[in-house]
Amino acid sequence: MRGRRRTRSKVSTSLGFDAGQAARHQTIAQAAARLVAEGLTDYRLAKLKAAHSLGYAGLNALPDNAEIEAALCQYNNLFASKTQPVALRALRGAALRAMQWLKHFSPWISGPVLTGTANEFSAIELDLIGIDAKVFEFFLLNEDVMFEIHGGSTTGMGAGDVRGEGKDRRDRPIPPPIRYDIVFDDAPVEITLFDSHMQRLSAFPKSSSRYDRAQLTEAQQRFTGGSAT
Question: Backbone phi, then psi, for 7, in 5-degree steps?
Fold first, then answer.
């Protein structure tokens, strides 16, 4: 019997499986998901706060965003099975109307409204690619829409912080993305302008909770067809 137990232990080690790490990840993911459900939208910060509160401060390996999403789905099913679907439906309806309103700019939607984990604390997250900030700001002004600006250089018609520029592979400066916060149909909407698809991919790689995205037609299909949970 002892020999068999040792054999299983050796096999697990050789495959790189660490039961202790898996348990820690699950515990941290559940705590982080609770923080997100309570309004903390930054997944990285939620993971750090959760790890610290559980006594795992300084832990090198933290759960990835997919684990947080899975834990958040479990949390919603257990503790918000009545309220979360109602909030999600309202946000998705507002998101489709906002994307129709912005159709000229070919918007993309990503984040919890798309993936299905959004609740009453969530914002609709839209991305515009290759749209000049000046053009977009004039559009908002002509539509009589109040907005707040966060990010890079703009026309100066709104308040916001200015971040330093990045550089591309040829060492050329890349303007940082600009985010416009507005309210549309009583829902908070965060609209981020990216210079290119590559710049967006740099901001939201596969490990990001916002990697998944869709344009209007696909979003309509996913929201009505049940493919997004």
Answer: -60, -45
